[in-house]
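Instructor's aside before we start: the two examples that follow are unrelated to each other. I chose them only because their records fit on one page, so don't look for a connection. First example below.
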Amino acid sequence: MEDNSPSNGVETPLLDNFVNGSVDYKGRPVLRSKSGFWRSAYFIIGVEVAERFAYYGVSSNLITYLTVSLGLSTATAAENVNMWVGTAALLPLLGGFIADAYLGRYLTIIYASVLYIMALGLLALSTLVPSETVVGASSNSPQLQVIMFFVSLYLVAFAQGGHKPCLLAFGADQFDTNDQKECRAKSSFFNWWYFGMCSGPVLGIFILCYIQENLSWGLGFAIPCIVMGFALVIFSLGSMTYRFAKKTENKTAFVRIGRVFGEAARNWRNKSSELCVEAQACDTLPNYHDPVQFRFLEKALLTPDESNECGTVCSINEVEEAKSVLRLVPIWASCLAYSVVLSQTTTFFTKQGATMDRSIGSSFEIPAAALQSFIGVSILLLIPIYDTVFVPIIRTFTKKPSGITMLQRIGTGMFISIVLMIVSALVETKRLKTAREYGLQDDPNSTVPIKIWWLLPQYLLAGAADIFTVVGMQEFFYDQVPSELRSVGLALYLSVSGVGNFLSSFIISIVEKTTGGNGQDSWIADNMNQGHIDYFYYLLAVISAVAFMVYLYAAKSYVYNGGRSCS
């Protein structure tokens, strides 16, 4: 064994210089001064910029491609967009599970990036396939172009399902919560991560929407493929600086939590065990004051043995770990309405804009989907203000490092989303009134003489809501799960968007069936001038208000997990 004592002239690094629980890419202990922190986070944020550029280069104008190039109806196209976005947001649960249980975050990002590149390449190729039905097939056979397009589109969703939760969790892992400086910086990391996350869409939506509508859909999908190739190179360049979670020989968090729920369910039906728990016959059982819905997990602590005495099955820490996951459910569920609201920005907001005056000057016409980039512009302008002005001011009053709590931040954005829907409804009422004044109700292809910039406030409000709710959810679902499950925790945050988009598709389907019929157009008509999207927006405002009240109750009763947040 090498002697590192001062007598041989070799200086031994101080223990404080090593990051506890982290190793480098070769499995060696890592020095704090040469690994992680912002030096690694910059690489990871750069990759996120590229990935979001690619993703929004596909998703932002998807409804236009489906209605114009593939000939789907407005309602069917909107449902397809919602279904795809929802699937893309739910697949991170699978990606996070694979990363946390098997591959690790780093390898999952690498493999997902390769699949991402292949899927985007196939998506671009699908636009070059002739749109006629396959030769020799029946007239009812699906078109080859449609099959290729949707297969490649869902491969993109699958790839980003592995990429997104792992990249954010891996970035947050570069900050050591045991070091006060790095712990405070991690809160800023989530803000600047979202700043980078929105920089990509701002560029992607403006540039790619114009290319797709005016030059070539194939080129518009090929550019994201090339950009993802660069993203993989950037991520690989930072490998030597990254901190990797040290592997342990203990059972994984999935096994531990699963065991707790299994034992709790088994003992729930065991009267002897129940009596042991209720009587607190064993000294190992703590005095709990949890809500009733969590108390059944305490039954996993004890089981009667043959002598009718209590024996320990699961440790107190394992039960607390399971509770920390279960506590997230009410918060998760009450955030779904927020996602339903935000899903309208890529569907009906774009269809509204397509009917309005989009001219700039005498010869240029802005793509309707391009206004989605103003969500990113709003975020890019407001995040520096939030991080450098708002937080320091609020911190002086609350004495909290982050200014306001994570749940307060989420709730603020949810309230803004209610205002967003009301404003959107008022603007749509104005657009419909203008269409009627000029006798354009029966002409779906006409341009309503009202500038598209009337939609700008609702896009800016969407960005402001995101700064609070989305960033708040990222930090909350990362911080409030066991450290081994942080990829899954962030996947839970992403699944809010997924389930919200599925709910949006379901609500659209119900509204279309209940408000139409007997020769009448529904609120959601192919001819936007005959429909009533404004009524639909008011409906979403009411749903959001009810969900907000549920959220306030859930947030008020939530007990934060201690020990992982900065003090």
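Example two begins here.
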Amino acid sequence: MAEKCGSEKASSSSPNLICPLCLDIFVEATILTSCEHTFCRRCLKKYDLTHQDLDHMVCPLCREITKLSANRVDDLRLNVSINGCVDDHHAKCGGMNAVLEMRPKCSGCKLQGDAVSFCRTCNNYICDKCLQCHQYLSVFEDHEIVSIDDVIEGKVSIGHLFEKCSIHKPENKDMFCEVCKVHVCHKCVLVDHQNHKVKNQVNFEQELRHKVTDLAQRCADKKSELEKNIQNIEIQRHEVHTAVQTLLDDVKEAYSIKAKELEENLRNLTEQITALERSFDDDLDVLKSKDRQRIKSICSSITLVDNDRLGHLETDTLSAHILLCEELDTMLKEVTDHTSAEAIKKKAHEKRFKPADDTRLDLGSISGSDPKMDVIQCVDLRGLIHGMTRYSNSTVAIGYGSNAQGIDIIDSNGEKQRHSNILALNEMNCHDLILQRDGALCVSTGSTEAYIYSRLGSRKATINVRKNINKLRVNRSPSDEIIITNYGKQVYIYDPTGSTLKHTVQTKHDTSQASTTRTGLIVSSSCWGNPSVVTVCDRDGNAGESLQAPEGVYLYAAVDELDRVYVASVDEKNSSVVIRLYDLDGLNLKERVEFNALNMTLVWNWCYLVSLSPDMLAFACCNKLYFMKVSL
């Protein structure tokens, strides 16, 4: 065991110079500041490698915690006293492992000379004089002697050599106290360690060796397992890259097909536009040709009638020229066509390019399996449900009214148990309930009051709300605020104790149920109202566009822990429930998935929808409870 070394100068004896981790002479002895235990800096760095995710180090000896800075072990201070002792020892003995390599002293006599042999029978190192006694005295005749050189070189094992007790001189320190972490003799155990956990040193060391051997084997096995796992990861990486490359190839192929389609479309449009241009040019050329023909006719006519030889004309000649003049006059009176070319220009300008719908250029999307929702459990309730709340990731708490009374806890396997802590509820109508994070239960019992009970069953608080003809409905926010509605155009938000009304939020529609997101937005449902709507608003009453159900269909909303909104559309007449998943887009709901319709027993239009986890919902109506698994 390493000694605590602060300001006091460490002893130069070998135990004080040995690191408890590597069992070798200290190298850069370093102190853990919390407990002042000392270890080699390199040993602490190796130890720290297995705890890189922590911002502290747990002392291997006493388990006290030392906070580490950004540089971790490098910023811990050196133990100047111990390092000084190590330097002195090296100066006297030489060699980094001198303490371990030095020849042991005789433990069989008071002279304490250098040991030359070891007596397995006496369990002592012996000097040359003690060796002579063992060789010539008959009392030592049967003792087994081995050479100290063979011991040092490891050729023979001397087993356990117990240190003598400094208090009870003849006794060996052959016991180990796990409480005090020291070796003691039998008498010390009786005097100072009676109630401590004490083990025989040989057994303790053997247990430790077995434990180390087992850990070493497990380390080798775990290392082999992790190396195989690394190889498997690389194999999977190759598979991932192959799959991604396949996706990329598919996208490129889709793009190539679409590009070819667009090129063909461009070619067709270009040809159509060229044909239009030719058509307009032809029409304009016709107009131009007509005007040129008229010019030619006018010029010919004027040439005939405007003749210098027109003087004394004969009767026939005079008649002909009179006719030509009349025709020319008529020709000149014809209105010039100034509009046809303008009309053709107008037609050309009226032509417009109408881009195709964006979806026609969509290359597709990458997705996994199709989203679905499956009913995994249907539970018959012992009465008409009046309230439901999440109890755990797979469990709900059901509240009953006058027909059954009390609260049941039901899990997704269909197992039921009564909530027995709050005995008063066994004789009280429960119209709605929520479980708070500390285990407290908030229960609505009518149209004006809700009670908060501790997890042990004592009433902690009473919440009074303005009287309304409908029963109070309760919920809680992610921060444990209590949300209360009573089918008015208000949502009441109380602090977790129920003693303070923090907000009164005005809503667009009569609100029967309300949930809140992590950011404080309120998702309100009018449920069986007409029309049935779901609306998102903030705490100032600003609201987005409402989801509105068709006549005869009723909407129930639930917010999960990821701030996604599930809305159940309940069609009582057709006994059908369709659940849709929406994402929040500001104060609006953006539909992501419409799940398959669920056939359920619907006796009335008052239902409950609760999110238990990101992949589990609970839905209840009348005396039926359904657990549903969601796969996205």
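Residues 284 and 341 are 6 Å apart (CA to CA).
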